[in-house]
Amino acid sequence: MKLVRYGQAGHEKPGLVDAQGRVRDLSGHVADVDGDLLSSPEQWARLSALDASGLPLVEAPLRLGPPVARVGKIVCVGLNYADHAAETGAAIPAEPILFLKPSSSIVGPDDTVVIPRGSVKTDWEVELGVVIGRKASYVTEAEAMGHVAGYTVVNDVSEREYQLERGGQWDKGKGCDTFSPIGPWLVSKDEVPDPQNLGLWLEVNGRRYQDGSTRTMIFPVARLVSYISEFMSLLPGDIITTGTPPGVGLGQKPPVYLKPGDTMRLGIEGLGEQTQSTRAWSR
To answer: Residue 159, exposed/middle/buried by CB under 10 A (0-12, 13-18, 19+)?
Structure first.
């Protein structure tokens, strides 16, 4: 299944993408795409059995919101691609580097990204997002994938000066409003047989900067779910962002950063595409 949420921000409705790529309304069958739905095998089975052609068709154009509602937390993994670590001059981490993004940073896949007030180093990062479907606490790697509901595309927008030059931890450069575009879809894990073999890419103003594969992850998805569950419970609807391949603005020579009026386009094989324009912060 490919599940979506569509409509005005804050008032999205649940939907399903049919075989022709059209959005069908699911609001007659589920209240929303959220942790309650993801943790219910009965509701999953009922949705899987639906005949999409019998669902109401949602007419284009339409805004897609983040495909998961009421995300409790976004757990991010830094420097998880060997080739990305190399471009930034960082050592390969012995254990996953973790940080959190607030839910207030979440926007839809094609919503505008706001460059924060005073920012000079706003950057891009295409990432595979792992959506949790069952509570995970102290799970083994062998058990980990049983706690995954599916996958999505995340742009881990980052302000490098805030992240690296303002002291303390990375969070202050990661959690600004609009810094987590998510979507377009939540793709159920049965449609992604191998999350460690997906191409992912990102362009800015038509130039491709990132063009990588999840094959070069240092810590694969199962390891990340298991590892994170040692330190915090992962709950249904939580999202893990699994790191980015090389090609970020910070890694260019000289570095390249986003400015108002830029356009980012990004995607992951089988998981869809995002497009965001950028604007300067204003009240």
So the answer is: buried
Rounded to whole angstroms, the Cα distance separating 96 from 224 reads: 7
- Measured on CA atoms in the order 65, 68, 70, 74, is the torsion positive or negative? negative
Quote the CA–CA distance of 8 and 17 in Å, as a whole number: 18
What are all long-range contacts of 165-168, with beta carbons under 8 Å and residues at least 24 apart? Answer: none
User: What pLDDT sits at residue 80?
Assistant: 95
- Tell me which residue of 65, 160, 112 sits closest to 260, measured CA to CA: 112
pLDDT of 232 reads: 98
- Which parts of the chain register pLDDT below 70? none
CA dist 191 to 20, 61, 146, Å? 16, 26, 15
**200, 210 contact by CB (below 8 A):** yes
